[in-house]
Design a protein that fits this description.
The chain has 314 residues and is of the alpha+beta class. 33% of the residues lie in helices and 24% in strands.
């Protein structure tokens, strides 16, 4: 079509009609007078659109695949990150579970012995303070901690406070060679003094050289005047060896402590002693003895064996 005046007028007229039809269609909604024409157009052009889409869709699918691949990669990276965080959380939860168990055992011991305690966490070991067996805890004078207070955990006697700062304190452990605590034997009430020997069992000198002691007997703290530095009744350990008396005035025992001094974490400082001596009530329950199985062997005579009163002929 050539560009003439008539053709331009026809184009303007068609555009005007198109706008008019669009306006009528929008205002008419589902009752639009052009609904039938739209349906007819869809019937005619629908197969063509499907044919075109069959050509275009693989390209679109490829683009989607690339995009989804990136998304899957991102999701995988996110899952790996979440998995690592979960493992870290589980590790943290395991540690927290262990610490809660320690705290629970310590609170049970404090409740049984009627000790008023201040909970603390071990934050440093003695290597930073010299060669003695000491630890630093995260409570101090601002928390009511004073020198010569007993320190325990859920297993038994840990040590005593030796130095106090505003927010921290140093604890001399019971296995330090400079550590000494008065002890009392379970049941027999025999008194003695336990001294630390580093990573070896505690050495206990009983005041009675003729005291009847055997392996497996248990000891607790005897206590000090005004409960300083030691409150009474705190479990110390179990006798692992007894030296022969030999007529000496004292008797030497070797005691395996209840506390593992290389695994300290949650401890408690006794800020208030018991109203009365708990005696042996704080000691853990003794394990029930396991019965030794008895094996009976019955010998059945052989069928070829000679009967009583008979001899086998050569």
């Amino acid at each position: 079509m050539r560009d003439t005046r008539e053709s331009r007028l026809l184009l303007v007229l068609l555009i005007a009609i198109a706008f008019a039809l669009i306006t009528v269609d929008i205002r008419g909604g589902e009752d639009s007078p052009v609904e039938g024409a739209r349906h007819a157009a869809a019937t005619v052009f629908g197969p063509i659109e499907n044919g075109v889409s069959s050509v275009v869709d693989p390209v679109g699918n490829a683009v989607s695949a690339v995009r989804d691949s990136d998304e899957r990669h991102d999701r995988l990276a996110l899952m790996e990150k979440e998995n690592a965080a979960l493992k870290a959380k589980l590790g943290s939860d395991d540690r927290n579970t262990s610490r809660l168990r320690q705290l629970d055992n310590m609170l049970k011991m404090a409740g049984t012995g009627q000790y008023g305690i201040k909970g603390a966490e071990v934050i440093a070991i003695g290597a930073a303070q010299g060669f003695s067996w000491t630890v630093t805890i995260d409570v101090g004078a601002n928390d009511g901690i004073r020198r010569d207070m007993t320190v325990l955990n859920g297993d038994g006697l840990v040590g005593r406070v030796t130095t106090v700062g505003p927010d921290t304190a140093t604890v001399l452990l019971a296995n330090d060679p400079d550590f000494t605590v008065g002890t009392r034997m379970e049941n027999s009430d025999e008194l003695g003094f336990a001294s630390g020997q580093g990573d070896r069992p505690l050495r206990v000198e009983l005041l009675n050289g003729k005291a009847e002691v055997k392996k497996g007997d248990r000891l607790v703290t005897f206590g000090s005047e005004a409960d300083k530095p030691f409150v009474p009744g705190v479990p110390v350990g179990v006798v692992s060896r007894v030296d022969p008396s030999g007529g000496d005035l004292t008797r030497t025992l070797y005691v395996t402590p209840y506390v593992s001094f290389t695994k300290l974490d949650i401890v408690g400082v006794v800020v208030q002693g018991p109203a009365k001596d708990p005696r042996d009530t704080v000691l853990p329950k003794k394990p029930k003895p396991v019965p030794t199985p008895t094996v009976t062997i019955t010998i059945t005579p052989s069928a070829n064996a000679p009967a009583d009163g008979q001899t086998q002929q050569q």
